[in-house]
Amino acid sequence: MYLEIITPDKRVFEGDITSVKVPGTLGSFEILNNHAPIVSSLDKGEVRVKTSKGELLQYQVDGGVIEVMKNNVSLLIEVLL
């Protein structure tokens, strides 16, 4: 899977991942390979990214939007805390 995390100011992360867990407005959820297409709003909380190299990255966010389509994940984050 390929992930991009973008704020209004810069691109925070771009690369291959195995999973990403996000704070959805109705509760946290995780995206894995071959996930169904989805668009969802995000709440304030922690985004956890597991890269294809096995690294675990964590970002504190103040809301945003996630879009998943054909193993491409885009996180549009309002503010990176």
Detailed description of the structure:
- The protein has a 5-stranded mixed barrel.
- It has a single domain, classed as F0F1 ATP synthase delta/epsilon subunit, N-terminal (ATP Synthase, domain 1).
- The protein starts with a strand and ends with a strand.
- The chain is mainly beta and 81 residues long.
- The radius of gyration is 11 Å and the shape is globular.
- Helices cover 0% and strands 73% of the residues.
- The model has no long low-confidence stretch (mean pLDDT 94).
- The chain has strands at residues 2-6, 11-24, 27-32, 38-51, 56-69, 72-77.
- A hairpin with a 4-residue loop joins strand 1 (2-6) and strand 2 (11-24).
Mean pLDDT: 94
Whole-number total of structural domains: 1
- Do you know the CATH architecture? Sandwich
Record the strand order, biggest sheet: 1-2-4-5-6
- Percent helix range: under 10%
Stretches with pLDDT under 50, minimum 5 residues:
none
Proportion in β-strands:
over 45%
CATH topology: ATP Synthase, domain 1
Order of helices and strands: EEEEEE
Q: What coarse outline follows from CA principal-axis ratios?
A: globular
In terms of structural class, how would the helical and strand content be classed? mainly beta
State the major sheet.
5 strands, mixed, barrel
